[in-house]
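ARCHIVE CARD
Drawer: 12
Card no.: 0347
Subject: one protein chain, sequence and derived structure
Cross-reference: see card 0346
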Amino acid sequence: PNNKRKRVSKIKGREKAHPYSRKARQITRAMHKETQIAKTKSDRLSGALSKGQKVVWFRDNMDSTQEESEDDTKKKVWTKDELRELIAVYLNRNQDDVDELLEKKNNGKVLAPKEALFLQVVEIEAKEARLAGIAVPDLTNGAVVKVLRAWDGDVNSITTIQLITCKPLDAPIADGTAENDNDDQMLEEATPSEDQAISNLTGMIVG
């Protein structure tokens, strides 16, 4: 019974436990378990916030590549190439900061660890997007566009926005050329694991 895993706060006599006693080992196991649980929750929250930030960007910038209409009518649906173009803009959203850091590096200055990590993250994001695609709101679906425009940014309701995996317009394919319009596999629904992570975080069931 004393070896049963439970929360540290529920273990009686923990303050007086001898360092090498069974009670101490029980406390260590309980602390390790609680640390694992906390890390899992933190990772899920981090993933949810990252996904939320990306969706917010597309909500706020999806009209940035479109010409203004005379009657100020909002665009209702995007073509595949228009979505690819928007993704390219998204991937270059930090370009000014990247250029500044690269100039600093080229001038012989040492980048701070945080700056070096930033450049690495930007590079990895762009590489993965061009090789495997990136999950973004499905702007080729008019219903999704309507929901996205009305979304208030609450991560708890982000599951109402359908995502698809898509590559940017300039993404290379096997022979080194750009993606073409006949790439029927370019758009895929978001992976269940991603939706499941959000569902586990918010308690909402993904349909």
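Annotation on reverse: The longest strand covers residues 134-137. Residues 173-207 have pLDDT under 50 and may be disordered.
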